[in-house]
Amino acid sequence: MTSPSTRRTFLKLGVGASVLPLTGYASLSSLPKRSVSGRVRHACVGVGGMGESDMGNLASHPELDIVALCDVDSGKLAAAAAKHPNAKTFKDWRVMFKELADGIDSVSVSTPDHMHAQVTLKALSLGKHVYCQKPLTRTVAESRAVLKAASNSGSVTQMGIQNHSNKFYDAAHTLFKAGHIGEVYEVHVWTDRPSGWWPQGVGRPEGSDPIPETLDWDLWLGVAPERPYKKGQYHPFSWRGWQDFGTGAQGDMACHLMDPAIWFLGLGAPLRIRSDGPTPNGETYPLYSEVKYEFPANKHTTRGPLNLTWHDGGRKAPHQLLEDLGAGEVPANACLFVGTKGALLANPYDHARLLGNEAFADIEIPEGVARNHWHQYVDAVQGKGECSANFEYAAMLTEVALLGNVALSYPHESLEWDGAGMRFPKRPEADALLSSKHRSGWESI
Fold this sequence. Notes:
Elements (H helix, E strand, L loop, with lengths): L3 H9 L13 H5 L9 E6 L4 H10 L4 E7 L3 H10 L4 E3 L2 H8 L5 E4 L6 H10 L3 E5 L6 H14 L3 E4 L6 H11 L6 E7 L26 H5 L26 H10 L1 H7 L6 E4 L14 E6 L10 E6 L7 H6 L9 E6 L3 E4 L6 E3 L17 H9 L9 H17 L7 E2 L29
Parallel strand pairs: 1-2, 1-4, 2-3, 4-5, 5-6, 7-10
Antiparallel strand pairs: 7-11, 8-9, 8-14, 9-10, 11-12, 12-13
Helix pairs in contact: 6-7, 7-14, 10-14
C-alpha cells in the first residue's frame, strides 16, 4: 500500500482514486477545449532566466498581450516591466490571481521546480490556459495532480520542452518512422549536466548571509522547508541540484533528451527501475547517475522488455557499443536508439545520424521542419491547432524522469513499479519519495 504520508498528500492534491492512465497524449488532446476569441491576455509567473525567454517568445506572438508579471525578485520584475510597461506587476502569484483573475486568459509558469505544481494547479482551477516549464513538477504525486486538473479544466496546456518542436528532432522522427533501424531493443540517453552548471554532491552550507533587498526569500522558498539564505547557493539558478527545490540533472535534461524515446517509441510507465550510481546525500543529487529502465514491448520494439539507460555527469553509452556502431565522436547530450538493423542518434542541437549499417550511407538525412513551441501554444489557446507537449504527454515524460531520481536512493536494486497504483509494490517505503511535505502555511495550495 502507498505510505500514509504519500496517500494524504495525493488526496490533498485532488487525485484520489480516479488517476488517469498515463498512456500518451492523444486522449487529453481529443477532449473539448475552451478557446480565447481575440487577443490572449497573458500573465508570466517567473520572469528571470528561462522565464525571461518564455516571456519574450510568448510576447512575440502577434495575438498575445502580456498583462501581468510576477516575480519574487524585484530586480528581475523591474527589468521585465521595462519591456512591458502596460503590465501589472506582482511579487506574489497568489495576490495576482486574486486581484486579476478575470483579466487573465493564460499563464506561463517559469519558477524553480518546487513551485511548478502549486502555481499550475491554481491557474487550472481558475480555468486558465497554462504553459509550464519542464519538468512539469518536482514530484510524481504533483505530476498526477496536475494531469487530473488539466483533464478537468478544458484548458490548453503545453510543457516548455522547446526542443520537441525543433527541426533536429523532427528529422530524427522522420528517420525513425521510415523504419531504417528495425525493431528497437536498447536505448541510451546521456547528458553532460550538471557539468558546473549548478552544484551537486555537496552538503548544506553553514550559516546565513544577508538577504538581498530585491528578494522576498520567504516567497521564493514557497512550499519548501525553511532554511537560511546563502548567497549564490540557491537563488537565482543554483537551486536545481538541491533536492528541496530542483530535480537535478535528470529532472532538468531528461525532459529534453528522453523525449525522443518516450515520443518515438510511444512508451508509457516503466516496469522497473534500477540505479547503479551513487546515492544522494540528503541535500543534493549525486555528481553522476546511471539509471536503467525496463519498459513493456510494443510494436516498435523487439519482444522485450525494452531497456533504456540514463547516464549523466558526462557519462555516455558504453564505449564498446559506440565503437561497434562506428559512432566516432558523439555529442555531450543525445538519445541513441539501437535496433535490429542499426542505430539512430538523435541530438536536440544537431543533425540526427544513422549508425551501424553500411547501407545507411545512401540515406539522405532530412533537414527537418522547425515549429515555434510557444506560438503553437498560443495558437491552440485561440482554437487553432493543438499542442504537441500537452500535460498528458508531459506528465508521463516527467514521471519517468522523476522515478529515476527515486531509484537513486535504492542503489543496485530493481524497483518494480505499479504505474496504475502509483506505488512500488515490493518496496513500499520508496512510496514516500513520490511526494513531499509542504511548509507550514502552504499545505492547502
